[in-house]
Amino acid sequence: MADATRRVSVRLSVDGAQQTKQELREVGEAGQRSLERIKDGTERASRALDLLDAAVRGVQIAGLAAGVRVLVQADDQLTGKPGAAAECGRLGRAGR
Fold first, then answer.
1. Does residue 38 form part of some domain?
2. What is the pLDDT of residue 17?
3. Structural domain total, the chain
4. Contact, 75 vs 83, CB < 8 A?
5. What's the distance, Cα to Cα, between the start and end of the chain in Å?
6. Is residue 10 part of a domain?
7. What is the DSSP letter of 3?
8. pLDDT tens for each residue of 17-40
9. Which of 3, 21, 66, 72 is placed for a possible disulfide with 85 were both Cys, Cβ 3.0 to 4.6 Å?
10. Which domain of life is it from (predicted)?
């Protein structure tokens, strides 16, 4: 089947050209202001998400540290001697 191409010509005539131009200009300006508000909102949202990402990473690191501490303490209890947990505590106090 052959592709058909249709052409349509439209001739637009405007009464009150100056008023029409002014109204179109106002529509454009209102659209521009709306886009600026959207842009500002997305920038604020992006900054908030960056802060949230940093907070989540901090929580992940704290969770990892707590997990390591529990494992070291469990090893100390199993072996019956203070090893890495006591050493970590000693080093932590020395840094204060």
1. yes
2. 83
3. 1
4. yes
5. 84
6. no
7. P
8. 888 889 889 999 999 999 999 999
9. 72
10. Bacteria
Q: How far apart are CA 81 and CA 78, in angstroms?
A: 8
Question: Residue 55's domain spans which residues?
Answer: 18-94
Which one, of 82, 61, 62, lies nearest residue 72 by Cα?
82
Instruction: Give, for 93, the enclosing helix (H) or strand (E).
Output: helix 84-94
- Round to whole Å and give the CA distance between 29 and 87: 67
CA 85/CA 64 separation, integer angstroms: 15
CB 76 within 8 A of CB 82: yes
Distance CA 42, CA 30 (A): 19
- Summarised one tens digit per residue, pLDDT across range 36-86 is 999 999 999 999 999 999 999 988 898 888 888 888 888 777 777 766 556
Residue 30 is assigned to a structural domain of this protein: yes
